[in-house]
Design a protein that fits this description.
The chain is α/β, with parallel strands linked by helices. Helix content is 31%, strand content 28%.
C-alpha cells in the first residue's frame, strides 16, 4: 500500500502541504477531494517524485520513496517501482500518433515486457481504431482515454489520476468510471484519484480524504459520512 505520513511541502517560503497523511490500498480506490488550490496536485507531484518534501515520509510497498532522513527516489525510479501518473490536462504528445503515445509508456519496463496488451484496447476500443492518428487531433475525451491507457501500459501497481473528468463529456466520464471500477475489481492495483466532480468520486471511492488549505480536514470510508457533510468542504 501507499502510506503518506505527515508530509510538509513548500514552494519557496510558502507552505503548500501541512502534515498531510493519506493511505491508498491495493484493491481500493482512494479519492482525494477539495477545492482548487488547496494542495491536491502538489501532493500527487510529491508522491510521483516531481516535487521534494521537507518533512514526513512517503512509503510504497515498504519502500521509502522519500523522507527527510533517507533522501528521495527519482521519478524514474518510482515509475520502475510500479507507480503511474495520469496528469491533470492529460499532457499527451500532440504530434505523436496514438500508438507512439502508448509506446512512451514502455520507458520504465524491461525490454521483454515492452508491448501493448490486448487489454488496453479492450478497455479503450476507440484507441485501436485511431492508432495512426496524431494525439492532438483527438477530442478531449479521447485524449483523456489515451492518457490513462498510456499509464496502464506501464503495468502499474499504483495508479495516480489527477482530475480525469475535467472538461470531459458525460459519455466519456461514464467510460472512465467503468474502467476505474474494472481496475479496482482486478484486485492488484491501488488507485489514488483526485477529483472535484463529487458524484463521480462518490460512485467509485472506497475511502476518501478532503483537503483544505494544505491539510486533510476529513477522511475515512466513503460510507461513513453523509454526502452533504462532505460537500460542505467542496463548495466555494
Amino acid at each position: 500500500m501507499l502510506r503518506v505520513s505527515n508530509v510538509d511541502l513548500y514552494y519557496g517560503a510558502a507552505q503548500a502541504l501541512r502534515g498531510v497523511s493519506i493511505n491508498a490500498e491495493i484493491g481500493k480506490v482512494t479519492c482525494l477531494l477539495g477545492r482548487n488550490g488547496v494542495g491536491k496536485t502538489s501532493l500527487l507531484q510529491a508522491i510521483i517524485g516531481h516535487l521534494p518534501i521537507r518533512g514526513g515520509e512517503i512509503i510504497w510497498n515498504d519502500r521509502t520513496l522519500c523522507s527527510r532522513s533517507s533522501g528521495s527516489m527519482s521519478a524514474a525510479q518510482r515509475a520502475r517501482a510500479g507507480i503511474a501518473y495520469v496528469p491533470q490536462g492529460r499532457e499527451i504528445f500532440p504530434l505523436l500518433t496514438v500508438e507512439e503515445n502508448l509506446r512512451t509508456g514502455f520507458a520504465p519496463l524491461p525490454r521483454a515486457k515492452r508491448q501493448i496488451g490486448d487489454d488496453i484496447y479492450e478497455l479503450f476500443p476507440v484507441l485501436k481504431d485511431m492508432l495512426g492518428r496524431r494525439g492532438g487531433d483527438l477530442s478531449g475525451g479521447q485524449q483523456q482515454q489515451l492518457a490513462i491507457a498510456r499509464a496502464l501500459v506501464t503495468r502499474p501497481r499504483l495508479l495516480v489520476l489527477d482530475e480525469p473528468t475535467e472538461g470531459i463529456q458525460p459519455s466519456i466520464i461514464k467510460d472512465i468510471e467503468r474502467v476505474i471500477s474494472y481496475l479496482r475489481g482486478q484486485g492488484d492495483m491501488a488507485i489514488l484519484l483526485v477529483e472535484q466532480y463529487f458524484d463521480f468520486a462518490h460512485a467509485l471511492a472506497d475511502d476518501f480524504a478532503v483537503m483544505d488549505r494544505g491539510q486533510i480536514v476529513m477522511h475515512g470510508a466513503i460510507g461513513d459520512y453523509a454526502a452533504d457533510d462532505i460537500k460542505t468542504h467542496l463548495t466555494v
